[in-house]
Each structure stands twice: as structure tokens, then as C-alpha cells.
């Protein structure tokens, strides 16, 4: 299944994270996500704006190819291809990463080949833990509020808003209640890779 994603990504401080939990209405209970990442040794996927991951929620696994298309007016536009996979397929992919190519649906496989030119050797890199709360902000925007734990216990806090038309209005309202942040076009995968390369990394 292919989806288009248009998203504001805003990195915030720990205090802002807890302020948002306190201030905004809960839409649904928080969920625990684990993202497992795969990449070529030469980082061809990252260099071409591709994230290749398996996400675990409870005991369900979803294979996703996410392709960044553009960053304009504070909005990251991406295309995502999702496919549910079995737990056995997941463990097989960890042990034999190149088997992921056989798991991709046709559209995702063709999109990857178009960007990379050919199948690249894959390896399993590792995982991050993410706690996601879905909240209603200012009675208008539904937001994803994330607390992400990276390797070495490094933690980031983030607000993501999809299909938002006026980012300035939203950010100004956040500032009024004491939540400030940094707009970014870099997703969790890019932060994960940077952290692997630099143990002194700061957002």
C-alpha cells in the first residue's frame, strides 16, 4: 500500500514534551513502537532519501519503505509503502537482510530500484524505541507526540503533524504556552545513523 505523507516535524525539549501531555487532549492511549532499520554498507538508501524499516507494535510487524520527496514551507513530503509481515519473516530478515527484497510489494521494489539502479547488499543496523501519544492540540490539530530512545540511552522529543496548512499559526500557539522547538526535515532514521557515527551527537 502506497501513501503520501505531508508532515511538519518539530524537535522539542523534554519540558515541552511534558507540557504538551499536560495541556492537550488525549485522543488515544500511548503506543510503544520499535523501529528496526536496514541499510546498505555504503548507505545508499540514506543517500537517496530512503528509509527501510520494520516497525513492531505489540506483536504486529510492518515492513515500510519511506522515500523523501521534498522539503518546502516547513513540510516534509514523502511516499511510504507498507506491508504487514509475519514474525518469522522479520527474524529471517534480521538473519538474512537481503531477503527483505523478496518481502517488498512490487511498487515498493520498483521505487527502490528506480532510485538505486540495482539491488544493494543489505545489513541490519539496529533499532530504536518510540513512545507515541496522539493528542488534540488547540482543538484543531491532531498531533503525534514522540519520545524516542536511541542507542546509548540518547532521547529526543518530537511533535509531528500531518496535512497541516498553516505551520506558523501552530508554532506560534505552541510558543504562547511555552513549547518551543526546531523545525527539521530529518527523520528518526537520520538521527539514528548520525548517532551511530558520533557518540557525542546532539540534536
TrEMBL record:
It holds the Pfam family CYTH. This is CYTH domain-containing protein. It comes from the Bacteria. SMART domains: CYTH. It comes from Bacillus aquiflavi. InterPro entries: CYTH-like_dom_sf, CYTH_domain. Coiled coil: none annotated. Residues 3-195 form the CYTH domain.
